[in-house]
Amino acid sequence: MKHIKVDMDGPIAVITIAREKVLNALSSEVIAELVDAAAGLERKLGLRAVILTGAGDKAFVAGADIAEMQALGYDGAETLSSRGVMLARHIDRSRLVWIAAVNGVALGGGCELALCCDFIYASSNAKFGQPEVKLGVIPGLGGTQRLARRVGIGKAKELIFTGDMIDAAEALRIRLVDAVFAPGELLGKARAAAQRIALNGPIAISEAKRVINKGLDKELYQGLLDETEAFAGLFQTQDQKEGMAAFLAKRQPKFKDAEVADYPMAQLHDED
Ligand code: CO8
Predict the structure, then answer these.
(1) Given 1.20.190.50, 3.40.50.970, 1.10.12.10, 2.40.10.10, which CATH number is that of 202-268?
(2) Less crowded by CB within 10 Å, the N or C end of the chain?
(3) What is the pTM (predicted TM-score) of this model?
(4) Digit-coded pLDDT (tens) for 16-55
(5) Which residues are catalytic?
């Protein structure tokens, strides 16, 4: 593994996404490594929980890799989003308990990756947001579906439409995260929860997880397909090219309203 580190500790595995220079941004290689690791860990007898975290003290994951995404068209973006959904499906269907230990910014695909986990612990310096619209795109790793399920539809729309970043205290208040700890305590608290879980019946835990997810997520996978199609569609727009070029050039984007009238999804909205 080049970009992730997997440490085994009895019934617990800790996966650390380690691309500190780019704030642990998710490239397609990182996603492939996470899928491989998830598949391998699933088969490890005696393993009960996985803690997912980021390297360093600044970032959990600052989103999908904008430098890699900038030049993508529809097909590339669809492949990227679908691979992300494949990873999410691994976590959803895993017999293991996945705990996100969010140790810094969790933005875009990073926030979405945390939302894929069974529960989320955060350090007090963590920050959350879905800033994709600032780049001319939308969440592509389940954010349009999972955020609303977690925090309610109004808060999810407010966060996704504004792209605002919120701190850990606000994330706890709106129940985006389940507990907040001092930065030095985060991993210890996640390990302690995993240890308590590991004392319980392994089949009972995985059945409880399966039934909870099945009950809540009847419509989830159709929603994820809709999201992938809309996410990839945006990579055919000038807005996406401008939004991502502006981020990489460290300037404000200039979005053009003129494109909206011709966009097929906008026309579909009119027909509904
Ligand atoms: N992708 C690539 N590079 C990044 C990313 C990213 N998401 N985030 C930060 N970096 C890089 C910066 O370009 C910078 O590189 P360099 O040192 O070469 O200039 C380095 O990391 C450090 O970043 P900053 O200098 O910007 O650090 P600051 O402390 O000033 O700012 C922020 C930190 C606020 C986190 C800022 O970096 C930021 O806004 N990052 C982008 C956040 C973002 O927009 N994320 C959403 C991306 S879109 C997305 O996630 C779509 C999900 C689709 C999922 C599909 C399936 C996987």
Answers:
(1) 1.10.12.10
(2) C
(3) 0.93
(4) 999 999 999 999 999 999 999 999 999 998 999 999 999 9
(5) 112, 132
